[in-house]
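Table S2 (text version). Query chain:
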Amino acid sequence: MINKYLLMFEKDKKYFPKVTDPQCQLKWNWSTLWLNDGTTNSCHRCLKVPLDPDNFDNFHNLPHKIKEREIMLSGKWPTVENGGSGHCNHCKRVEDFGGTSDRLNMLKMPNQTPPELYKDPKSTFVTPRILELFLNDTCNLKCTYCGPRDSSQWKSELKKYGALTDPDGNPSTTHAPTSRGMFKSKDQRALMDKTKDWLLRNAYKLSRLHLLGGETFYQSELDEILDTLENVKARDLELNIVSNLMVKKERFRSVIERIKRLVKDRRIGRFDLTASIDGWGPEAEYARTGLKCDHFEKLFSYAVDQKWMRLHVNMTTTSMIVKSVPLLIGKIMDYRKHNPKITLRANCLTGTPILHPSTFGRKMWTKDLEKILSVWPNETQQDRNAMQEFKGIFDSIPTEMPDEKMLRYFKHFLDQLDKRRNTDWRKVLPHLDI
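Corresponding structure-token output:
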């Protein structure tokens, strides 16, 4: 019954039936399951709450999620003052400065609304349409803006060298061998099994299934999920894998071929590959320790030729990569000559705030932003939406000039990484040594 209902939405292209501002479609349609630490949230920027293995099927309708939906329905942001967690401040700040936030962009995406809302737009107990699975932290990179929660390489480094410190010598609470991110949930295996069981019963209700890590292609859990999808009939499901493309060619191609069979056999409806890279050249390779642009390009070129699948490029915007963004855009535009459906999107940094462009103030980026916007693709509405979202990251920087305290922390942070990784940020990023 629900499957026919969802097919009707696909034909009609129905949008989220917003009742009030600042209602966010993500709060109603999206759940991320962080299987490594046993938590869930409905947006990467929002509060993670514990999963209950004994009540797993209710992950999308836990009390915290319902409460924040109720606050939004009342016409308020779920700030601490309004009884929420306060984790929606990024979108609120962007919108307060007149920018386009994640929330506003998500409202433009059709056919991802829980079916309950078409009967009652004020429903708060709903069926998820987008499920994102953080399978494991196994990773081959240690991006500067990442940490032990999301990267096994980061964990290994912290165990070897000890905690990072602030400029005054105080140990970090997030980048230390004893930080919460260093430890996995004791229920990780059970949660994985329950996730597979849930997918067997409910995959056909989803519009999208996102898989990420760590590095997804290096994780045995990816094979388990593909095993599961071989036993479902989810003809409208879009599977999306997020990858840094720093994987062996043989492994990459074998997984892509396996997914191609899933699409051919109509077990799923579509496959999307999201390639994570933040810029191009030495700056991008510094930001993502372990990235090699030449290897990335080899696998990306292979993916470009696979016209049966969708290809996306996803950037994380930090101070380190701003000047290299035009080079990346140039690469994408060249590839679009062969595959015009490649999309580009830039996310705002969610962790390690000292690496956010705001550390250097809005004035620092004026000319760079003008250059980037002048070459940003403008061929589709998705291009224009992504450009406005990228622009909003800089428009929402609260001050014109650098934050001296944050700048001091920025330099100290990268100095520590350089000593551990035999790198030199001042050589690669001389414009940031102010």
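Notes on Table S2: Residues 404-421 form the longest helix (18 residues). The radius of gyration is 21 Å.
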